[in-house]
Amino acid sequence: MSIKTNHKHVAALAFPFASHPKTLMDLLLKISNSAPHILFSFFNTKNSNDSLLSDLHLPSNINIYNVEDGVPMGYRFTGAPHEQVNLFLNAAPEILTSRIETVVAETGMKISCIISDAFLTFSGEIADKFDASWIALWVAFPTSLSAHFYTEIIRKKCATEKIGKDEELDFVPGLSLLRVKDLPPDVFAVGERESVFSKELSQIGERFPKATAVVINCFEELVPEVTNNDLKSKFKNYLNLCFISMTLPPPPQLPESDSDTTGCLSWLDKQPCKSVAYIAFGTKATLPEKELKALAEALEFSKIPFLWSLKENLKEKLANGFVERTSKQGKIVAWTQQTLVLAHDSVAVFISHAGYNSVCESIVYGVPMICRAVFGDQMMMARMVEVGWEIGVTFKDGVITKNGLLNILEMFFHDDDGKVKKMIENLHELKKIVLMAALPSGSAARDFTKLMELISIG
Asked: CA–CA separation, 363 vs 395, rounded Å?
């Protein structure tokens, strides 16, 4: 689809942390391909841009601009939670407004639309200053959007009725599968515990209904119907686009193993079908040292072949001699191309932090999960994996122990009661749903057409 435009100018505002900038850029690439006459200006911090754009080929209608990260000169980090995020968010409204004004003056083109990461909830006010429409991109699963939309109700209910952490959230539309303890800590951050970040998120219920559209990094068919219906009723336009950063359908064949410089594919080629445990906790999540050791001990004791994506500096936290003793049993690398690993026939299970992108990839490649959530919305995603979709399991009390993991691995690799077989069947059904929704005639294409109309009109 290609839509003619009247030389519109769209500003894209990134939240420069984790995978957020990549998802926004992938959306921008998709939009720019359909609207080559629109000018796109992408605003992000220099460090994030340097990482994001290192091997990315951009079309001529996307311009990249660096913005300050909000860290004062000579500032010494204290190690407080979300410290760098809070510094950026505190300074971002002024920094972004000033930078956009400069770009408008340089290009001679006023901003017609602002597409922002949804964590920048102040973007609606920036859009008002430039008389532009505002489109917010929610990169996580929609249940986390519901949690932040209903923050005030959740806070009041839990405070006045003293609801326990194991209580289900049946008083919030679409969250009845979840428990209080599954919610991100920022939902409960009040008083001295309220950071700039948690305050931004608490503004979602007030600010998002003013947006021209709220765009979701998901397929509506994967979301509970009550969640979809409720969020659709709250926003002017509620658009589920797809898994924005994934290619669907996935490539039918893996590349030649020799082309994988990490050596993972070549190693996996030597393992029996459905014999390998793949372990990866993303780029930001880090397990406590005690749990890292428990994970390593369980892997070694189980004798199960494993592929572990582990940062180099964390190897020293494992038991002495673990790497050497398990050199024939497993392979440890600093980074993997995860989709290629999950697509390989030898991978049987994915031990993960339940990050949203990882869960999406698990669904597309049909690999059941063992989840140990670490922060943010990961507890909610782990709950969806275990209870909502029944495509994986979590650890008792949310903590990895040697015996706990050994028991789970025993279930996955022997499956005496057929639980894993059922998980794989559920994964196959979810994959079918995703691939149908991703067709040119599917729901994602319909919502993308609506998005392009809004951008072209804005």
From this structure: 20
